[in-house]
TrEMBL record:
Family statement: Belongs to the polypeptide deformylase family.
Keywords: Hydrolase, Iron, Metal-binding, Protein biosynthesis
Protein name stated in the entry: Peptide deformylase
Protein's organism: Thalassospira marina
Encoding gene (name): def
Catalytic residues as annotated in Swiss-Prot or TrEMBL: 137
Role of this protein: Removes the formyl group from the N-terminal Met of newly synthesized proteins. Requires at least a dipeptide for an efficient rate of reaction. N-terminal L-methionine is a prerequisite for activity but the enzyme has broad specificity at other positions.
Co-factor(s): Fe(2+)
Amino acid sequence: MALREILIVPDPRLKQECEPVSEVNDEIRQILDDMLETMYDAPGIGLAGPQIGVMKRVIVLDVSDDKEKPAPMKMVNPEIIWESEDFSVYQEGCLSIPDQYADVERPLEVGVRYLDENGTEQEIEADGLLATCIQHEIDHLDGVLFTDYLSALKRNMILKKVMKLQKAKKSA
Ligand code: K1U
Ligand code: ZN
């Protein structure tokens, strides 16, 4: 397993749509393992392919809390097959937009279809933080960031802050 570099806004790869995976093979399994290691190291509760420059439809997640047993999830070609009419608001963060948080409203519950690491089709129902995180990660595969749900004013303020912080980090 290997730690991968996490891309930070405004890297153009974060705004691109990813290609579906045609075969779940050892190369894909290696990417998924590297993504989980990178996510735990960050630390984060999710990570999508484009955040490490892999433009494929792959995501990993673990929304278990510190007191629980780790619950890693690996999803290939994930798709939302239904969503609830009820919405919830969660203060989201993003490893590609470090140290910035904002309230985002999304469907409270979703149905998700995906391929597991053996290439077997799975379907799950998710709610709460898992539902929020899955939607956030699938958005990454379509080049959508949580800041795209905010006003242009808030989005640009966040982008400017991140660029300033990154510049300061590099010259420190
Ligand atoms: O996709 C990402 O950038 C990861 C992101 C996932 C996410 C967080 C919150 C709502 C929706 C999706 C993160 O993991 S940000 C870091 C974070 O939330 C966290 C870090 C350490 C402990 C607990 C949470
Ligand atoms: Zn993110």
